[in-house]
Amino acid sequence: MRILLGVTGGSPRTRRSSCCACCASRGAVRVIPTSAALEFVGAPTFEALSGEPVSTEVFDDVPGVQHVALGKGADLVIVAPATADFMARAVAGLADDLLTTTLLAARCPVVFAPAMHTEMWDHPATRSNVATLRERGVHVIEPASGRLTGTDTGPGRLPEPVDIAREALALVDAPLAGSVETQDLTGRRVVVSAGGTREPIDPVRFIGNRSSGRQGVALAQAAAARGADVTLVAANLAQDVTDQVESVRGAAGRLACSVVRVESTAELRSAVRAAGAAADVVVMAAAVADFRPAATPGAKIKKVPGQGPAPIELLENPDILAELAHERLRPGQVVVGFAAETGDASGSVLDHGRTKARRKGADLIAVNAVGSGRGFGTDSNEVTLLDGTGEVVGAASGTKRAVADAVWDAVVKLLP
Ligand code: C5P
């Protein structure tokens, strides 16, 4: 596999060389720095890490038409860090150095990992450039939150190189090399539920929810990459998430992930319990409908003009997570749940999460705030991890994949 690693200006110096090292462990990497990037790390360092020549200008190797050859021959392009300036240049289609021209010639998946100060990341110009890049199919990774250059803290930090490499390689169906990826779930069987259940009202209508399944699929991918044998119980995933699952399954022989597709809560419950009987860990990331229609007629319910809506009687669904936590299908099994909360007058997101953690009896509950563009359907997430007593045992933010790895880190500590 040919990976092009574009490196732009900006200051996370050690991280850019580790990005190179992470990618180099997986394939042949050619580094294309901008001239600003070479102010921070010299070409010889990149050449030593990648084992390939490094150039910034289109005029190097003119007879070989280098910029077109590099772009056309690449299987994956990663730009990390991608500065605000570089993203603006990419949006404008500028072609004034080797990296920008190569990007225009590339037809493979392209990943940008932005890094900048929070104010620059939040600026409408940057937001609009990121939206345009995403519309054009560029995979723009959410920056991490934390210490920035100088005394600033906040969103804008370059994610860990291993996370960038992992997320980028997932797009081309390639796991990270074992030397980089932790294999701490080897030999473990895990079940992950993802998506949202649908309760049929009649043959054409249902009661459903907005869960895309992104976080659940990220959990399944992360577990498979860490060596686990994964069963993903998938309830009505969004189309792009389904495509992502197919790409994980396509990596047969390298990642062990089987998928059981379900629609309703009853189907999800049977599938999770069947696979859970042999599992070391069950993670309930699916958004499960709390109620279902008491009766489902075999024919479409007709609107009778003048009679108003037909009432729908609802019955409560079993709480699958609470059942699993209280029964334990297997001794020592670790049970994990999610709590999507908005907070209200009676308590904060965390207050509600704590109450839920105590009521459900799971070993871990990942509490996340949803609503106003947060949580459902987005690429990033922010969770607080609680134990069964409601004590905070961890926190994670960033891409759903990064959050997934934080959940597995906490699970690994609980495994016998
Ligand atoms: O009570 P709430 O729906 O907020 O709880 C969320 C957690 O419980 C999630 O882990 C979800 O998968 C699980 N759940 C369940 N069965 C239900 C409702 C939720 O397993 N009927």
Structural class, judged by helices and strands?
A: alpha/beta
Helix content: 25-40%
**Looking at the structure, what is the overall shape?**
elongated
Rounded to the nearest angstrom, the radius of gyration is 24 Å
Structure ligands:
cytidine-5'-monophosphate
CATH superfamily of the largest domain: CoaB-like
CATH class of the largest domain: Alpha Beta
In percent terms, what proportion of residues is strand?
15-25%
Q: Which consecutive residue ranges, at least 5 long each, have pLDDT under 50?
A: none
Strand order of the largest sheet: 12-11-8-13-16-17-18-19
Question: What is the count of DSSP helices, taking H or I runs of 4+ residues?
Answer: 14
Task: Tell me, rounded to a whole number, the average pLDDT.
Answer: 87
CATH topology of the largest domain: Rossmann fold
Can you describe what's shown?
With 416 residues, the chain is an alpha/beta fold. The protein has two domains: 2-170, Flavin prenyltransferase-like (Rossmann fold, 3-Layer(aba) Sandwich); 189-414, CoaB-like (Rossmann fold), CATH 3.40.50. The protein contains 14 helices and 19 strands. It has helices at 13-24, 43-50, 66-73, 84-92, 98-105, 118-122, 124-135, 161-171, 214-225, 239-250, 265-276, 320-327, 349-360, 400-414; strands at 2-7, 28-33, 76-82, 110-114, 139-140, 144-147, 153-157, 189-195, 199-200, 206-207, 229-235, 256-262, 281-284, 291-293, 314-316, 334-341, 364-369, 380-387, 392-399. The strands form five sheets. An eight-stranded mixed beta sheet has the order 12-11-8-13-16-17-18-19, with helices on both faces. Helix 10 (239-250) links the parallel strand 11 (229-235) and strand 12 (256-262). The protein is elongated, with a radius of gyration of 24 Å. The two termini are 38 Å apart. Bound molecules: cytidine-5'-monophosphate (C5P). Residues 284, 286, 288, 290, 317, 319-321, 337-339, 356 line the site of cytidine-5'-monophosphate.
